[in-house]
Amino acid sequence: MINGLFWIALLAVLALGLAATVIAVKARAEARRMKATAAELAEKNRRLTERLNQSRNTLMDLVRDLPQPAYLLDRTSGVVIRASQATPDPERTPERSRWDIVVAAGEFDLIFPQSTDDSGEPNRRRNDREHKVVRSVLNEPNVVKGLEKAAALLVAGEAISEAGFAVTLLDEQTRHLRLLWQTGMVRGVQRLLDNAALVFGQIPSANAALLAQDIRASRAGASTSAESLFVLPAEVAEWQSYPIRASSGEVLGTFDWVLPKEGDGLVPAADRVANFLFVASVLLERHRAMEVVVHRSRTDRLVSRISELLISSSAGAEQEALVESLGVLQGSDALSVGAVGLVFQSSDGPLVRLGSLFTAAVPLDHDLPWLKAQLLPFIDSRDHLDMIEGVGGLPRLIALPSLDDAAGRHLVRALGLSLDETTASLVIFPLFSGSRFDGALLFGNSPEVSDAQGQLLSLVAPLYTSHIDRTGLLAELERRANVDLLTGLCNRGHTEQVLQSEIDRSRRYRNALSVVMFDIDHFKSINDTHGHDAGDRVLKEIARRVTRALRNVDVFGRWGGEEFLVILTETPADNAEKVAENVRRAVEEGQYGLPVPVTVSVGIAGFRENDTTETLVKRADEALYGAKSGGRNQVRRAG
Question: What b/e readout covers 472-486, taking b as 16+ CB neighbours within 10 angstroms?
Answer without folding.
Answer: beeeeeeeeebbbee
